[in-house]
């Protein structure tokens, strides 16, 4: 390489000399050439002297140094084309492959021959190889960039998807809640249609109607009743009221909390008051007589006055003046009173609106009829005036109950008995009627059917026949029925109150010979449901009874040792006396029977008495011990005069040591 | 007590007729469903407990007479059978402007209280005196056959199988229960039976080991009644609200 560069320099010099024609420059050139040749000769002389003087080791070091300098030069010249990474620090002399041409470009001779490129020089081969390698590296970098961008895009898509899923999850919760609210409304409608509505269903229907139709001329398809009637009819116990309060909260969530706020709060307060009443809690520090006076004070006052009174009471409670418990309790009662009064007034307003609508419709009908008769024009104005005056007078005097009667929906009787209507539909319509509606419908049916009998004049009857007075006849029948119902059986003789004649005789027979050691025994054992073939014809019932338990001391060895007459032992059951009354037994010739069965407690047994119709079986739980069955020991088993008597004592065991 | 069907809905095909290809036994399953409405019968009693009337209509749905509150049994819209013996003929004085009403009264077979009456002009109509009859619930007591049932829809399923020479027809009116539910219920019942048997066996062993215990002195009547009453288990607080 060095020789080639020297040749290059010489060629350049030769090229320059013919172009220069100046003599001065020629002289400078000659002098420079001479000086250069002199320096070279000196250097050559110095080298030869050093070579002569140096030792073998110095010679080896010099040569290594020279070679390394050459390698460094070559390395610098080929720095751009070097393929070995700089971290490896591999050189031609220092590499684990023992390859002295490591830094040179590999030449694949046979391939070049095959491709017809054997004429290329080393520089060209190196250049092509470098270009190919650079292109490959560039392509790899391009692929890496594409892969990274694709991964980043995928990650972005995943992030967006996750956000969308989160948002959708929140929406699904909301939709679930909305679905439940819709189902509540749907279930309410179904319960009302099927005639098994709850209090919350009726209240919500009333609230929705009163809210949606304040001035619309729409007649409701149900009977407008006072909301308090819904509460009384549906809610029977504390649990029902508590359920109602929760249901009201749920329904306000369905319809929106702001709708009918005052109305719902009033209903809730009344329900809470009913809960307190049924729980029989103490009403505070107010005496019972004062409560009546308080209620009278609240009456005959408008809602505004009551609200002012409430403010005054709140001020007194806050000011701690007087008896705080008294004012607190009074304030609670006042709130409930205001709620009830407000509900009543609201209902009155709704009814008056409905009445006005109905009257408008009636006026329209009258006008239509009058328009058909146009001839008597002169008579129309005075009639209208008279009607207006009458209506004004009626409106002032009417009460809420009268208004509700007028607003009451007229029932189409023909629809209920329509033969084309199928059975389920008819049954549903009948069941939807209230008590008053049912009464009206049945009276209308009687009138339509023309069931009234023909009446006879008093003159047409025979002279001596007995004529019953209407009221006297009714009274007589009622008395006989009550006497019949009075003899119905009760669960025990003690609760029968005033027994009748026959019962008193039976009672006397049963109580005969009662001693101080005996007490009335009335713990009846509950039997499973009994079914008899005759239960369709006769009303099954339980017989009445008067049973006694015989108690006394048991002077066994243990008790003789530890007790005496002054300090007696506890009494034990020594016997039973069952007296069961069967006054209405159909077949008096067959006596009742009894049987013993075991029960869970081995110390006790169940004795069961069985008789014929119309009496059901009756059972008692008795001590499980052996009976004495001899008459002289108190055993008695007889059925006489409608009284079944079973008396027995338990056996006593005595032994001698 | 359900009403009898007027039309014969059980047209059972002759199962031996082979409807398939001749020579080959064809298995044919025919599933048929028929819905009809069951109206229950209501039993009414006299105040003494004697059965007085069976009707397919509730008393409070019969036409009501304004004058005395009686109800009318009309043959065209009510089917009812009365159980009563003939009573006396009575002339009831209504208001002076109206006149006298002649009634043929019928009495209870047991206590002889008048329950029904008829008029000479229309013997096909029977009137029920007001407050004379009591329903099963009003009389009180328990009777499995007389609970006032609501009118309900009954689904009758008819399944016809025809397998050549053999065939079977299954008619079922079970209320909406399918075979799977029946099998599940039978399995549960068998489990219950096994549990009861095991319980009895354990109890028997317990009683056997009890022989060596010291026998207790029999207690008095008050303690026996107290033992019979037993202690009440504290009830778990129930969730409030019925809508959700």
Automatic annotation (TrEMBL), chain B:
Name under which the protein is recorded: STING ER exit protein
Segments for region (Disordered): 165-188, 209-244
Pfam families, alphabetized: STEEP1 (PF25809)
Residues in STEEP1 domain copies: 38-138
Family: Belongs to the STEEP1 family.
GO cellular component: cytoplasm
Compositionally skewed regions (Low complexity) per UniProt: 219-231
Record-level GO BP terms: endoplasmic reticulum membrane organization; endoplasmic reticulum to Golgi vesicle-mediated transport
């Amino acid at each position: 390489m060095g020789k080639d560069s020297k040749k290059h320099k010489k060629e350049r010099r030769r090229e320059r000399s013919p172009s220069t024609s100046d003599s001065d420059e020629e002289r400078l050139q000659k002098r420079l050439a001479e000086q250069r040749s002199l320096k070279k000769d000196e250097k050559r002389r110095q080298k030869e002297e050093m070579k002569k003087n140096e030792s073998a080791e110095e010679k080896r070091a010099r040569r290594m140094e020279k070679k390394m300098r050459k390698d460094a030069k070559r390395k610098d010249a080929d720095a751009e084309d070097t393929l070995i990474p700089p971290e490896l620090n591999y050189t031609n002399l220092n590499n684990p492959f023992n390859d002295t041409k490591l830094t040179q470009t590999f030449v694949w001779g046979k391939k070049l021959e095959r491709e017809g490129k054997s004429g290329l020089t080393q520089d060209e081969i190196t250049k092509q190889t470098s270009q190919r390698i650079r292109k490959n590296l560039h392509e790899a970098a391009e692929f890496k960039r594409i892969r990274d961008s694709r991964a980043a895009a995928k990650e972005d898509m995943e992030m967006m998807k996750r956000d969308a899923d989160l948002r959708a999850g929140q929406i699904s919760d909301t939709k679930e809640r909305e679905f439940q609210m819709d189902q509540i409304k749907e279930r309410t409608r179904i319960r009302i249609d099927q005639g098994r509505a709850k209090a919350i269903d009726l209240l919500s229907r009333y609230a929705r109607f009163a809210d949606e139709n304040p001035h619309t001329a729409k007649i409701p398809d149900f009977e407008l009743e006072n909301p308090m009637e819904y509460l009384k009819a549906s809610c029977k116990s504390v649990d029902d009221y508590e359920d109602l309060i929760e249901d009201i909260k749920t329904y306000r969530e369905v319809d929106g909390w702001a709708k009918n706020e005052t109305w719902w709060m009033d209903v809730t307060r009344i329900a809470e008051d009913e809960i307190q009443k049924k729980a029989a809690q103490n009403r505070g520090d107010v005496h019972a007589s004062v409560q009546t006076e308080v209620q009278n004070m609240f009456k005959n006052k408008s809602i505004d006055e009551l609200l002012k009174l409430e403010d005054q009471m709140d001020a007194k409670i806050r000011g701690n003046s007087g008896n705080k418990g008294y004012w607190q309790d009074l304030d609670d009662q006042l709130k409930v009173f205001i709620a009830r009064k407000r509900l009543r007034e609201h209902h009155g307003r709704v009814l008056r609106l409905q009445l006005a609508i109905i009257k408008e419709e009636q006026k329209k009908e009258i006008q239509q009829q009058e328009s058909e008769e146009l001839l008597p024009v002169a008579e129309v104005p005075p009639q209208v005036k008279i009607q207006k005056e009458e209506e004004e007078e009626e409106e002032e005097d009417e009460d809420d109950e009268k208004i509700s009667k007028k607003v009451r929906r007229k029932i189409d009787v023909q629809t209920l008995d329509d033969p084309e209507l199928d059975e389920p539909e008819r049954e549903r319509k009948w069941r939807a009627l209230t008590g008053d509606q049912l009464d009206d419908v049945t009276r209308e049916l009687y009138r339509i059917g023309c069931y009234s009998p023909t009446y006879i004049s008093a003159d047409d009857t025979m002279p001596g026949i007995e004529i019953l007075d209407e009221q006297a006849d009714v009274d007589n029948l009622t008395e006989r029925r009550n006497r019949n119902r009075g003899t119905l059986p009760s669960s025990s003789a003690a609760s029968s109150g005033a027994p009748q004649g026959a019962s008193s005789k039976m009672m006397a027979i049963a109580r005969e010979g009662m001693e101080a050691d005996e007490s009335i025994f009335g713990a009846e054992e509950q039997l499973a449901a009994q079914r008899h073939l005759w239960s369709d014809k006769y009303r099954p019932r339980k017989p009445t009874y008067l049973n006694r338990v015989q108690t006394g001391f048991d002077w066994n060895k243990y008790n003789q040792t530890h007790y005496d007459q002054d300090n007696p032992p506890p009494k034990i059951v020594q016997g039973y006396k069952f007296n069961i009354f069967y006054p209405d037994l159909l077949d008096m010739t067959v006596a009742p029977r009894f049987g013993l069965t075991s029960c869970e407690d081995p110390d006790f047994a169940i004795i069961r008495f069985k008789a014929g119709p119309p009496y059901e079986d009756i059972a008692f739980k008795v001590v499980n011990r052996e009976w004495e069955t001899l008459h002289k020991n108190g055993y008695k088993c007889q059925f006489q005069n409608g009284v079944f008597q079973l008396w027995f004592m338990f056996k006593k065991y005595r032994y001698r040591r | 007590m359900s009403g009898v069907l007027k039309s014969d809905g059980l047209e059972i095909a002759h199962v031996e007729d082979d409807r398939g290809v001749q020579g080959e036994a064809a298995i044919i399953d025919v599933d048929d469903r028929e819905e009809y409405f069951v109206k229950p019968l209501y039993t009414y009693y006299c105040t003494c407990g004697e059965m007085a009337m069976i009707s397919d209509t509730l008393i409070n749905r019969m036409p009501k007479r304004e004058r005395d509150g009686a109800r009318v049994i009309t043959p065209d819209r009510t089917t009812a059978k009365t159980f009563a013996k003939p009573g006396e003929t009575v002339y009831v004085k209504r208001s002076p402007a109206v006149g006298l009403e002649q009634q043929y009264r019928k009495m209870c077979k047991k206590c002889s209280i008048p329950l029904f009456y008829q008029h000479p002009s229309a013997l096909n109509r029977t009137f029920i005196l007001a407050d004379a009859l009591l329903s099963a619930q009003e009389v009180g007591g328990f009777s499995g056959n007389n609970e006032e049932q609501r009118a309900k829809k009954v689904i009758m399923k008819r399944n016809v199988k025809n397998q050549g020479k053999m065939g079977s027809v299954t008619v079922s009116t079970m209320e909406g229960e399918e075979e799977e539910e029946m099998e599940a219920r039978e399995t549960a019942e068998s489990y219950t039976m096994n549990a009861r048997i095991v319980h009895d066996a354990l109890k028997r062993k317990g009683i056997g080991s009890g022989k060596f215990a010291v026998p207790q002195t029999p207690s008095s009547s008050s303690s026996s009644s107290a033992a019979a009453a037993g202690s009440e288990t504290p009830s778990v607080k129930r969730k409030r609200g019925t809508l959700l």
